[in-house]
Amino acid sequence: MKTGDWILIFAVLLAAALLFLFAQPFSGAIKATVFVNGRAVAEIDLARVKTAYTMEAGGCVLQVEPGRICFQRGHCPDQTCAEAGWLSRAGQTAACLPNRTVVVLSGAPDGVTGGV
Amino acid sequence: MKARKIALWGVMGALTLAICFLENLWELPFLPPGARPGFSNIVTVLAALTVGIGGIFYLTALTVLFALLTRGVTACLMSLAGGILSGGLTALLLKGSRRPFSLFGVAIAGACAHNAGQLAMACFLTQTGAVWLYGPILLVFSLISGAITGTILRLAAPYCIKEYQKL
Q: Distance between CA B69 and CA B72 in Å, rounded?
């Protein structure tokens, strides 16, 4: 093993650590808008959510956590909304058609989701 | 070119494709789909050490073509991005007599470059930055797979170089 090898290993670990710290998915101000019957009933700034909570909208129960939001299972027959899983990036949406409830994520001014 | 050397190129190509094929057979836990240890890099570096830098590009082209035929255009593009970065870096690191890294380091650098290339291509193809979230785990994985590859290389390289000179 040459000295260069050790430097390389250290550099790779450092890069991994830096990426881990700074490439967080939730760094942008991501806004979740909840629509019921086409009307916006709630706006949540997901980046500012500090503790997890649940909220009701249009008969659905939404789970809100820091940086992400999800439909809870068991409030409609087809569960398509819950299958969509956690939403954390701008542009993601999930809809519960039986309850006419839609969650749309927008924002991310720092271009985290903008691609290359 | 002597027949033996031509045969050697054929054997190297076959080995690379066989390793690629075997690695496609299973998915690794905790890693994004398609992540592989990249043991074919052993053959690539050995090729560079014996037949020269041309061997790297020959084997890279072969794996890219193999990915296109067996796994489709997306896999081919991913393979291409990883192969170009990894092959280019390996060629650069093995060029000249004053090498900054031992074969151990060369293997790790190659693995990291391969994953970086693939991530960049995935980023471009999916148009989301979210794939970079795989970065840290892929880098650590590259380090482990590169260390295994590097260890095998250090054991195999002296023997292969000696045998090559007899050809």
A: 6
Residue ranges and CATH numbers for the domains of chain A are 26-107 (2.60.320.10)
Per-residue pLDDT tens digits for A94-105 = 888 888 888 888
Q: Return the axis-axis angle of helices B3-24 and B40-50, rounded to nearest 10°.
A: 160
Query: Mean pLDDT over residues B73-96, rounded?
Result: 91
Evaluated on CA atoms B101, B107, B109, B113, the torsion sign reads: positive
Phi, psi of B52 (to 5 degrees): 110, 180
3-state secondary structure of A76: coil
State the ipTM, two decimals: 0.80
Helix locations, chain A, DSSP H? 3-22, 80-83
CB contact under 8 A, A2 and B112: no
Of B105, B108, B123, the CB nearest to A116: B123
Distance from chain centroid for Cα A58:
21
Distance of CA A43 to the CA centre of its chain: 14
Partner-chain contact A115 B128, CB within 8 Å: yes
What is the rounded CA–CA span in Å between residue A15 and residue B19? 29
List chain B domain ranges.
3-166
pLDDT band at residue B84 using 50, 70 and 90 as cut-offs:
very high
* Closest in B108, B127, B133 to A25, CB measured: B133
The CATH code of domain B3-166 reads 1.10.1760.20
Q: What value does the mean pLDDT take over residues B132-151?
A: 89
pLDDT tens column, A37-88: 888 888 888 878 888 888 888 888 899 988 889 988 877 777 888 888 888 8
Separation CA A95–CA A83 (nearest Å): 10
Measured at the alpha carbon of residue A52, what is the angle toward residues A34 and A96, in degrees to the nearest 5? 30
